[in-house]
Specification:
15 strands, five-stranded parallel β-sheet, Rossmann fold, 20% strand, alpha/beta, six-stranded parallel β-sheet, single chain, 2 domains, 36% helix
Length: 270
């Protein structure tokens, strides 16, 4: 049965008893540079109760160190070992598929540095891959270059399938939307590495060192977070602080186990 925001005590007690929590970030922890209500209490509860937790984000813009710094600016102290991004997942995938390969990248420093760290070089002449991630510097010239290189044989990779994401200014385009013009122009479909790809989910569960039945997936998107959790055997929690609404939930054949207004509803009330 689909739970609503008026969860009963039994449902919440079962949720709180789980050993590990995998959390999305955008729309769950913050919007842009604005911390969402209840997040401080939620993270305090994770620390106080000894829960294992991991922030598993489809955003490829920042490194774990930068994400740690961003949360610190918001007043939260979280070690960088608690972060795993689609940029890291993409770098891991490419280094396993083709060690020492090269790539033409449309993306932010978090993605470029993740690729550098595993020995992938940047190449705008004859790369093995064209890799697309979130960036504020997206432009027509880079699209033209990407299209030319894909036509020449480079394989097209996207860091994640998010079409849009929440920000302080409202909903903005994300990786899937930025990749679409290149797919349409070339007729080639990108391979997307981030959620809900099981490659990223299995890595997250392995980082926690727990069995899937002991882990909760918390996210604001039905099409990435919740489906990833369902397909990985995790208990799923949809929060309504980001992209999804009660109305959009009805568009999908699968359901989250629990729907909450925010992560602030998870800790016990003092």
């Amino acid at each position: 049965m689909l739970q609503t925001t008026q969860c009963n005590d039994t449902v919440l007690a079962a949720l709180r008893a789980k050993k590990g929590f995998i959390c999305d970030m955008d729309g769950v922890i913050y919007h842009g540079n604005k911390l969402l209500p209840g997040v401080t209490e939620f993270i305090d509860w994770l620390d106080r109760t000894g829960k294992k937790f991991l922030f598993l984000t489809n955003s490829s813009e920042r490194s774990p160190k930068e994400l740690k710094q961003k949360l610190k600016w918001m007043g939260l102290e979280v070690d960088e070992s608690h972060f795993y991004t689609s940029a890291l997942a993409t770098a891991k995938f490419l280094s396993n598929q083709a060690p020492g390969c090269s790539a033409y990248v449309i993306g932010a420093p978090g993605l470029v540095n993740a690729l550098y760290d595993v020995g992938i070089t940047m190449n705008d002449r004859d790369p093995d891959y064209v890799v697309i991630g979130e960036t504020r510097d997206y432009n027509y010239a880079s699209i033209l270059t990407a299209v030319k290189l894909v036509f020449a044989g480079a394989k097209l990779i996207g860091t994640n399938t998010d079409l849009s994401g929440p920000s302080e200014q409202g909903i903005i385009p994300a990786c899937r939307a930025l990749t679409a013009p290149i797919e349409l122009a070339t007729g080639k479909n990108a391979y997307f590495v981030g959620k809900p790809n099981p490659l990223m989910m299995r890595t997250g569960i392995r980082m926690l060192g727990l069995h899937s039945e002991d882990v909760v997936m918390i996210g604001d998107r039905m099409d990435t977070d919740i489906v990833a959790g369902v397909e990985s055997g995790l208990t799923t929690v949809l929060v309504l602080s980001g992209v999804s609404t009660m109305e959009t939930v009805e568009q999908y054949a699968y359901r989250p186990k629990v729907i909450l207004n925010s992560v602030g509803e998870i800790p016990e009330r003092k």
